[in-house]
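Bumping my old thread because nobody answered last time. Still need a sequence for this structure:
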């Protein structure tokens, strides 16, 4: 089995070389709760494409 972490690292390095100038910023977890929630929902589904007409319940619950 291939180590996907090394593949990802190589892709990031290649993109950084192509771009020439880049900036890495830390984003606190509190600011990315919605993104984390959507990522988890996508991993739980069977399809690689998810289209939502409205926000999923799990995302709306984050704002309550």
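Sorry it took so long. Here it is:
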């Amino acid at each position: 089995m291939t180590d996907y972490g090394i593949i990802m690292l190589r892709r990031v390095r290649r993109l950084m070389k192509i771009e020439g100038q880049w900036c890495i910023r830390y984003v606190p977890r509190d600011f990315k709760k919605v993104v984390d929630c959507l990522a988890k929902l996508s991993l739980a589904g069977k399809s690689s494409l998810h289209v939502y007409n409205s926000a999923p319940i799990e995302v709306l619950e984050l704002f309550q």
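The first helix runs from residue 4 to 19. Let me know if any region looks off to you.
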